[in-house]
Amino acid sequence: MPMSLSLSLRSIGSDPMERVVQLASESAVVIFSVSSCCMCHAVKRLFCGMGMNPTVHELDQDPRGEEIEKALSRLLGNSQTVLVVFISGKLIGAMDRVMASHINGTLVPLLKEAGALWL
């Protein structure tokens, strides 16, 4: 089940949490990833295999990636943040939540509702 983010996009500045909200809202499916992470690769392949082209932000290739990763960690409430997925600007979670949603059949309806998947 997606979690709602309640930050205003009016004054996007240098705050990493505001940057996360801005980036997460820019397209139907947004993935925050690390390019060398095999679990990140698996989730990106899952979405691409469904015929989607998610927006991917590789944190290890972003000058502010470490700050963004810390903000994502605060959102998830843990320190092990590498992969984080947003659908329609709503936090879905890390790999475990994405895969659980895929297995229990709730991922596809979320993607259809977001306009990311048509079939």
TrEMBL record:
<dbReference type="Pfam" id="PF00462">
    <property type="entry name" value="Glutaredoxin"/>
</dbReference>
<keyword id="KW-0676">Redox-active center</keyword>
<dbReference type="InterPro" id="IPR011905">
    <property type="entry name" value="GlrX-like_pln_2"/>
</dbReference>
<dbReference type="GO" id="GO:0005737">
    <property type="term" value="C:cytoplasm"/>
</dbReference>
<dbReference type="InterPro" id="IPR036249">
    <property type="entry name" value="Thioredoxin-like_sf"/>
</dbReference>
<protein>
    <recommendedName>
        <fullName>Glutaredoxin domain-containing protein</fullName>
    </recommendedName>
</protein>
<comment type="similarity">
    <text>Belongs to the glutaredoxin family. CC-type subfamily.</text>
</comment>
<keyword id="KW-0963">Cytoplasm</keyword>
<feature type="domain" description="Glutaredoxin">
    <location>
        <begin position="29"/>
        <end position="92"/>
    </location>
</feature>
<dbReference type="InterPro" id="IPR002109">
    <property type="entry name" value="Glutaredoxin"/>
</dbReference>
